[in-house]
Amino acid sequence: MPVIEVRKLVKRFGLKTILKGLEFSAEPGEFVGLLGPNGAGKTTFLRILSSLSRPTMGMIRVAGFYLPQQAAGVRANLGVLSHQPLLYGDLTGEENLQFYGRMYAVENLDARIGEVLELVDLSKRGRDLVRTYSRGMAQRLAIARAVIHDPSILLLDEPYTGLDQDASSMLDTVLKQIAAQGRTVVMTSHDLARSEDLATRFDVLSRGKIIASARRDEIPKDGLLAFYRRSLEMPDPGKQDAREAAHG
Amino acid sequence: MKPTPIVLKVLNWISLVLLAIATYLTIYWAPQEVTMGNVQRVFYFHVATGWVGMIGFLLAVFSGIMYLRTSDMKWDIIGLAGIEIGLVFSLVNIVTGAIWARPIWNTWWTWDPRLVTAAIMELVYIAYIMLRQGIEEPERRARFGAIYAIVGFVSVPLSFLSIRIWRTIHPVVIGSGDAAAEGTFDMTAGMQTAFFFSLATFTVFGITLLWHRIRLGRLQDTIEKAKMEVMS
Amino acid sequence: MAKKRKPSSQTSFWRALSAVVWKDISAEWRSREMFSAMLIFSLLVAFIFNFSLDLNPKTQREITAGMLWVTFAFAGTLGLNRSMAIEKDRGCLDGLLLAPVDRSAIYFGKVIGNLVFMFSVEAIVLPLFSIFYNVNLFNPGLLLVILLGSVGYVVVGTLIATMTVQTRTRDVLLPILLFPVVLPVIASAVRASTFFLQGQAMDLIWPNINLLIAFDVIYIALAYMVFDYVVEE
C-alpha cells in the first residue's frame, strides 16, 4: 500500500504547464532520489506534495489523505526541508524549535527538543540566535525542525545547496540516521553522488513527467550518472539519430 | 480569435448615435435651469458617468468573488475590464463634478461626502491597478486582484458614512446652499427626459466599451499562449 | 522517540494562535528594531508637524487628534511591513503554512502581534504628545477610540500587508492599498477623538464610535473569510 500515490498530476501556472500528467508512487520506508534538470518541475512537484501548492488536476494521496481536500491531515505527517531554512533569525535555536513544536502540538516538547538537537549535533548552540549560525548549522537546525513532530514522510528539496564539505557530510550522517528509522523520504538533489549513497530508488523527472525509475539494486555502482544521462536522452529519439548520423 | 460579433458592431453604432442624441438633448434641447444657468447641463453626463463608474466596480467585485470560487481566468479578465472602465468613467464623473461646482460653489473642490467618496473609490481603483502591476504570476495577480476588489469595495460605503457623519456636524458654509449642491433642484419634464436618456446612453456606451475591453483581454491571453508555445 | 500523535488532528486554534503571537513578541523583544523604528518615526512626524504648521496654541489643540492619527497611520505601515517581511525572509511563511493549523489562526496571531506593537508605540507617543502640545491625552474616551481605531487599522493592514509583501514593489505598495480602505477608521477616529478632548456631548460622539465598531466587526469577518485565498497557492 503506497504511502504516496500520484496519478495524472497536472500543474499550470497561468499559461505555462509545468507538470504534465505526472505519475509517482512511494512505498513506506523507501528513500526516493528525485533527479532531473533545472526547470523540470521537481520543486513544483514537492511543493504540491507538501500541500503548499494546489494541483490543477490529478489525484494525490499522501499518508491516506487526499490533496488538496484533506491537506490538514497530510501536514501533520510531513516533515519538509527546502533550500530556505524556514527559521527565525531573531530567535534562538531552541526557541525556533519551541515555536514549531507548539505549532505541531508535539508532546513532551522540552524533552523532544533536547532529543532533536542531539540528533543534529547542535545541543551546545541551542541557546544562540539563529542569525549567528553558519549555513550548515542552519540547515541542521532546519532538519531538527522538520522532524520534531516525528513525521512518517520527509520531503527534501535540494538540501545540500550551499553547504561546504563538512556540513554536507554531517547532513549525510543525519539523513542516514533519520531514514533508517523507517520513514519515507523523497529527496531532490543535483548532487548525484550523495543521492547514490542514500537512496533506495531513483526517479528521473524531466519536462513535467517521470520518465524513468530504477531501484538501487538495478543500477551498478557508480552507474547512476550513466542511468541519468540515458534517461534524459530517451524521450527524444530524433536527437539520437541525428547524433549517430553526425558521427556516422 | 473570433471576429467582432455582429451584436458588438451594432452596439458600436448604437452607442455613437445615442451619444450624439444625448449631447444634443443636454446641450440644446433641455430647458435651462433657473438658478444655475447653462453649467447645470454638465449634471446629465456627470450622474450618468458616475453611475457607470459604480457599475464597473460592482462588476469587478462580482468577478472577484467568482474568480475565488472557480479559479477560472475569464473572471479575472472581466474584473480587470470592470475596474478600468470604472476608473475612466469615475474620473469623468469627478471632473464634470468639479466643472459644475466651480461657478455654483466658487470652488473646484469641496469636502462633500459624495465627492470625497467618489475620490476614494477612484483611489481604490488606482491601487488595484498598481497592485496588479507589481505581480508577475497571472494566477497570483488574479487572486490578489479579486481579494483587493472585495476589500476595497466594502470600505466605500463605510467611507461615505463616516464622512457624512462628519459633515452633519460641521455644515458646509460656502456656496448657495445645500439644495443646489446635492442636485436637488426640481427637474422639469424636459430635464427628466434628458437625464434618463443620458443615463441609458452611458449605460449602453459603458457596456460597449466593457465588451471591447474583455475582448482585448482575451486577445492578450491568446497571444501569450501562442508565445509560450513558440518558445517551448 | 516522542509518542506518535493522531495522524489527522490539527493543532488547536488557540494553541497555534498563541504560538504565533509568542514568536512575534519574543523575536521583537530581542531586537526591538520595529518598535524603535516606529517610535522614532512618530517623534519625527510630531516635530515636522510642529515646524511646518506653525499654529497658535488654540488651533493646535483642535488638530491634536488629527496629528495623532496621521502619526499612527504612517508609523503603523512601518510595523506592518516589518512584521510580514520577517515571514517572507528565509521562507518562513511556508513554515507557517506547512503546519497543521487553521490559516486563520496564523492570520489572527499576526493581527494580535501587530496590535501589541501598535499599542506599545501608542503608549509612548501619547504621553509625549501630551507634553509637546500641552494637552491632557489621558482621556478614557480617547483611549477607547485609539483601541477601536487601532484594531480596525491592523485587521485590514495585516491582510493587505500579507499580499503586498509578495509583490515586486513591496513596502511602497502597502500605504497605497491600505489608506483608501482604512479611511473610515481614520475619519471617525479623528472626529471621536477631537470630541472627547473637547468634552462634547456623547450623542455627537456615538455615531463615530458605532462606525468604528461596525468597521472592526465587518473587516474581522471579511478577513477571516478571505485570508485562506491570500496564502493558498
Can you put this structure into words, describing what you see?
- The complex is a heterotrimer of chains A (248), B (232) and C (233).
- Chain A has 248 residues and is an alpha/beta fold.
- Chain A contains nine helices and ten strands.
- In chain A, the strands form two sheets. In chain A, strands 6-7-8-3-9-10 form a six-stranded mixed beta sheet, with helices on both faces. A four-stranded antiparallel beta sheet of chain A has the order 2-1-4-5.
- The longest helix of chain A has 16 residues, at 165-180.
- In chain B, helix 2 (42-70) packs across helix 5 and helix 4 runs antiparallel to helix 5 (138-169).
- The radius of gyration of chain B is 20 Å and the shape is flat.
- Chain C starts with 12 loop residues before the first helix and ends with a helix.
- Chain C has helices at residues 13-31, 33-52, 57-88, 92-98, 103-133, 140-164, 170-198, 202-231.
- The interface between A and C is large, with 44 and 38 residues.
